[in-house]
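User: What would this chain look like folded?
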Amino acid sequence: MHPKNPFINDYPFDKLLTDSPSLKQFVFKNEYGNHTIKFSDKEAVKALNKSLLKTYFNIEWDIPEGSLCPPIPGRLDYLLHVADLTSKTDIHLLDIGTGANLIYPILGKCHFNWKCTASEVNIDSLENAKHLIESNPPLNDIDLRSQKFKTKIFETLIQPNDYFDLIVCNPPFYKNKSNAKNENLRKFNNLNLKSSDSLNFGGKSNELWYKGGEEAFVKKMAEESAFFKEQVHWFTSLVSKKENLKNIKRAINKTNPTEVRIIEMEQGNKKSRCIAWTFK
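Assistant: Here's the prediction, encoded as structure tokens.
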């Protein structure tokens, strides 16, 4: 985990439970006597997220049933790593596919005081993101934009007078609904969960799958990035599968960037990575 991540140590459950009593039903002591939650339970993860955002940033947060519920420490870790790409502090961030959770603009605004713009293709997700902005005064200057064309990413979204220091994206990582279902079943079995347990792999279709999966999505980002190289300093995206990096990097290199970086990240036992490229 990034050394500047405030979640690098154990969660302050005493403080969290004081601020959010509803979290108590999901908290228990593990075999080491430490307070924790069942991270395979999507309702427990959602309750923890609500509590973290309230305690750390005074944000009232919620998402509709079935929406993707992001792990906040990991999402902040991504932002901390890409922030190291530039020496600027007055950063303008663009989040591609912000979802109903709006998590990157929330963290960008509340933790870094960045100027944030968020895009989303799903109307229902867009409405919940709008509600979060309107319900929390610190978020009122977040610019929320609708991407009306599912086949486009930056086109029609980035306007002629726009300039972004960083673009972040958590791309849809499955190829289709069947692929998502099979992968979740595999994770379910690997975690040795009982049939009564619920998984925390929520998410709407546009959040979870894209024809060709994350590889195709980031390749599309690379293709379109060449048309906006004067308006963006760093393009970045999470890449969940390490085996996709080779083909993604090849696609990026075809656009003749000046630099491509792969940033490795770790949160506990989980390893992840993002790819970043620039034409500057």
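The first strand starts at residue 27 and ends at 29. If you want, I can go into more detail on any region.
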